[in-house]
Automatic annotation (TrEMBL):
Its cofactor is Zn(2+). Its EC number is 1.8.4.12. This is peptide-methionine (R)-S-oxide reductase. The lineage of its organism: Bacteria, Bacillati, Actinomycetota, Actinomycetes, Mycobacteriales. GO terms for biological process: protein repair; response to oxidative stress. PROSITE patterns: MSRB. One of its GO terms (cellular component) is cytoplasm. It catalyses: L-methionyl-[protein] + [thioredoxin]-disulfide + H2O = L-methionyl-(R)-S-oxide-[protein] + [thioredoxin]-dithiol. GO terms for molecular function: metal ion binding; peptide-methionine (R)-S-oxide reductase activity. Keywords: Metal-binding, Oxidoreductase, Zinc. It comes from Rhodococcus sp. D-6. Residues 17-141 form the MsrB domain.
């Protein structure tokens, strides 16, 4: 299982909850700032094959690229690696009675989803970054 780092850098983008609420829709706030999860198979980017860069919907930081996206058929967009290893932070998540690794944006510490390992997907990393569509914004390649 992917291990979470012991310490993490402070976020570069910081807002109060009130400022985040003004910037995000209620659904975006629930996922990005309160670690919620959107329902499976409803997200805008679940099955898209559009080429481009996936940014954090909260702060605009580059997180993933379409070249690392794959069809996992799990109901959420899946990537086998972030665009840059420093783009995300991995945190241990023991909520809901299970051990998982949470993925957060390194720039603003917004919740993105979780990463899973050893599921047998034919990817170079054997990892599945299972990311909420609502946490992302796709900037299409030109």
């Amino acid at each position: 299982m992917t291990s979470a780092p012991r310490s993490e850098p402070a976020p570069k983008v910081v807002h109060t909850d009130e400022e985040w609420r003004a910037k995000l829709t209620p659904a975006e706030f629930a996922v990005l700032r309160q670690a919620g999860t959107e329902r499976p198979f409803v997200g805008e980017y679940t099955d898209t094959e559009t080429e481009g860069i996936y940014e954090c919907r909260a702060c605009g930081a580059e997180l993933f690229r379409s070249t690392e996206k794959f069809h996992s058929h799990c109901g959420w967009p899946s990537f086998f690696d972030p665009a840059d290893s420093d783009a995300v932070i991995l945190r241990e998540d023991n909520s809901l009675g299970m051990r998982r690794i949470e993925v957060v944006c390194a720039t603003c510490h917004s919740h993105l989803g979780h990463v899973f390992e050893g599921e047998g997907y034919p990817t170079p990393t054997d990892k599945r970054y299972c990311i909420n569509s609502i946490s992302l914004r796709l900037v299409r390649s030109e």
